[in-house]
């Protein structure tokens, strides 16, 4: 298999039950700074998100806002904790095409653009030994 070129760590998504407690830990104990906070009620997302910068690394705290949220299902099945790891690629469509050419499958229903213009999709965890991997790009920042 050919390696995916020009990727870099973007952020880690953490599923939480209590946003206030999680924010307190990441800001007071780890010294992070809240850089954004928003709620996505889009079908298939339904999550409150707090983004924290910790010395240049980003963490997205994810609290479900409904029982149909994938974060709610994740917590029910696996408990709170690391939900996904995201890698930034120069061009999302090219990365998807390249990996599909190698037989890598994607969770097509996760493909979207968030409110900040970040385009993203999750790789099928069956192809990653169980870890949810997000690929993303920021076309507005080019």
Automatic annotation (TrEMBL):
Which Pfam families does the UniProt entry name for this protein? Answer: Glyoxalase_4
The molecular function terms in GO held by this entry are: metal ion binding; methylmalonyl-CoA epimerase activity
One GO term under biological process is: L-methylmalonyl-CoA metabolic process
What InterPro entries would the database entry show? Glyas_Bleomycin-R_OHBP_Dase (IPR029068), MeMalonyl-CoA_epimerase (IPR017515), MMCE/EMCE_epimerase (IPR051785), VOC_core (IPR037523)
Q: Which residues form the VOC domain?
A: 8-138
UniProt family annotation: Belongs to the methylmalonyl-CoA epimerase family.
Protein name in the entry: Glyoxalase
| Organism of origin | Pontibacillus marinus BH030004 = DSM 16465
